[in-house]
């Protein structure tokens, strides 16, 4: 069982890193060599990743990397807005002094990353902030839903992070979220998170229009 989990985890990370192209066909024999796993482990991993929405199976084709269209990414983000709004609300109602210091430190590092023109560092801090809020909120169902949504959005989020000026816009929004959560303001935290993800949706729609 541990071996099966290893293969599944390694395949998931490879997909999220962009090692495979959208709609790329996945050949079991090649996957066995790439991930050093048996056919049973590979098939088990493919089944799990299909459930997560990362791959799809096509008649007479087999498994391939699922391509998430921008229009679908917008719909997924609309769901994310509701769930992450709840997470922010819960975090604001439960945050303790140590967690407040940590969130404020993330905010300072995010500001420094934007000022230094370090989009990769900023992106990593973005992920750290959202994960920290989920840890504080401690809502397992919300965590599970968000993890699945994120996996399907990761390619578009990467493209969005490279849009000129996007980091500066999202920095202000993230700082608003941190301010509300650390002030233990549930209504303000939920509103700030919803405003942030609404901005993400608008940016995605702009990318779709540009295409």
From TrEMBL:
PROSITE patterns attached to this UniProt entry: HTH_GNTR
Keywords associated with the record: DNA-binding, Transcription, Transcription regulation
Pfam families according to UniProt: FCD (PF07729), GntR (PF00392)
GO terms of molecular function: DNA binding; DNA-binding transcription factor activity
Domain of life: Bacteria
InterPro entries: GntR_C (IPR011711), TF_FadR/GntR_C (IPR008920), Tscrpt_reg_HTH_GntR (IPR000524), WH-like_DNA-bd_sf (IPR036388), WH_DNA-bd_sf (IPR036390)
Name of the protein in its database record: DNA-binding transcriptional regulator, GntR family
Transmembrane feature ranges: none
Start and end residues of each HTH gntR-type domain: 1-68
PANTHER family (alphabetical): TRANSCRIPTIONAL REGULATOR, GNTR FAMILY, UXU OPERON TRANSCRIPTIONAL REGULATOR
């Amino acid at each position: 069982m541990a071996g099966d989990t290893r293969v599944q985890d390694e395949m998931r990370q490879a997909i999220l890193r962009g090692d495979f192209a959208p709609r790329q066909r996945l050949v079991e024999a090649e996957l066995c060599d790439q991930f050093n796993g048996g056919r049973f482990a590979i098939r088990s991993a493919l089944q799990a990743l299909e459930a997560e929405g990362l791959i799809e199976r096509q008649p007479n084709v087999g498994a391939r990397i699922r391509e998430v269209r921008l229009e679908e990414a917008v719909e997924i983000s609309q769901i994310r807005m509701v769930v992450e709004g709840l997470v922010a609300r819960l975090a604001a109602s439960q945050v303790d002094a140590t967690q407040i210091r940590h969130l404020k430190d993330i905010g300072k590092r995010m500001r420094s990353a934007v000022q230094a023109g370090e989009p990769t560092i900023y992106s990593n801090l973005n992920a750290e902030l959202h994960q920290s809020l989920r840890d504080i909120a401690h809502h397992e169902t919300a965590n599970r839903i968000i993890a699945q949504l994120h996996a399907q959005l990761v390619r578009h989020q990467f493209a969005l992070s490279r849009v000129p000026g996007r980091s500066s816009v999202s920095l202000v929004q993230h700082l608003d979220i941190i301010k509300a959560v650390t002030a233990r303001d549930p209504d303000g935290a939920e509103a700030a998170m919803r405003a942030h993800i609404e901005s993400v949706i608008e940016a995605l729609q702009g990318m779709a229009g540009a295409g």
